[in-house]
Specification:
236 residues, alpha/beta, binds magnesium ion, binds adenosine-5'-diphosphate, Rossmann fold, 37% helix, 10 helices
């Protein structure tokens, strides 16, 4: 349903993506792994309209996303959980959630309210803290909030950029279990994850990126047992 072909992105003179090909089928969890600086974040940003594409094509449900502004891409049902969470620290938990649905709040206030209740069921901790300033939440709670905020628009497709970054093992498990749960709910997911072993364990397929290119791709179970992946990314 999402297809990226020969994608090139530059930052000034620096080439961040150099001919990336990738696709994600409906209902899949696809993991994207690779070292810092490999181009993972840039690829997600290109998909959701946050960086300019130099060359190549991105199509979603048969339509090109190239040149479309981020809010239009979000309206098509693609939601982005950015690296570093980027919640609004001086706003409350509930205000942050409502910002995730800002394109719908006037048209469908009831639906937005229902979605918020679903997110409070998913993460009761957020409900307890609904009137608390988001900046005062723990890292794990902020990641729950970032995820729930992205889900407020009830997207079909979710791109997640290192959701486990900086979290304790308990929260890493909670967040990754939630990602698996989202697939059960029918979401399609592209997951960037620094903990390669965990990413491969919960995904169907994976891409390994290096220096702005796809270095390897395959079935996640196969990659988990690939000697080169083990040596380079699973840190035996
Ligand atoms: N805003 C930016 N301006 C200039 N260079 C950037 C910017 N963002 C990322 N880069 C560079 O692009 C490359 C890819 O970065 P990034 O996509 O963030 O990689 P990853 O997410 O895999 O760590 C890196 O060399 C990085 O330094
Ligand atoms: Mg990154």
């Amino acid at each position: 349903m999402l297809s990226v072909n020969n994608l090139h992105v530059n930052y000034g003179m620096a080439q961040a993506l150099r001919g990336v090909d990738l696709h994600v089928n409906e209902g899949e969890i696809v993991a994207l792994i690779g070292r810092n600086g490999a181009g993972k974040t840039t690829l997600l940003k290109a998909i959701t309209g946050l960086v300019k594409v130099k060359e190549g094509e991105i199509t979603y449900l048969g339509q090109s996303l190239i040149g479309q502004p981020a809010h239009e891409i979000m309206k098509k049902g693609i939601s982005h959980v950015p690296q570093g969470r980027q919640i609004f620290g001086d706003q409350t938990v509930e205000e942050n959630l409502l910002l995730g649905a800002y394109t719908q709040i006037k048209k469908n206030p009831k639906q937005v309210q229902q979605q918020m209740e679903r997110e409070y069921e998913r993460f009761p901790r957020l409900k307890e803290r609904r009137n608390q300033q988001a900046g005062t939440l723990s890292g794990g709670e902020q990641q729950m909030l970032a995820l729930s905020r992205a889900l407020m628009s009830n997207p079909q497709y979710l791109v997640l950029d290192e959701p486990s970054m900086g979290l304790s093992p308990l929260y890493v498990k909670l967040i990754l279990d939630t990602v698996s749960q989202l697939r059960q709910e029918g979401k399609t997911i592209l997951l960037v994850e620094q903990i390669a072993g965990a990413a491969l364990s919960i995904s169907d397929r994976a891409y390994v990126m290096s220096s702005g290119q796809v270095e390897m791709t395959g079935n996640s179970q196969d990659l988990l047992h690939d000697e080169r992946v083990i040596r380079t990314y699973l840190g035996a």
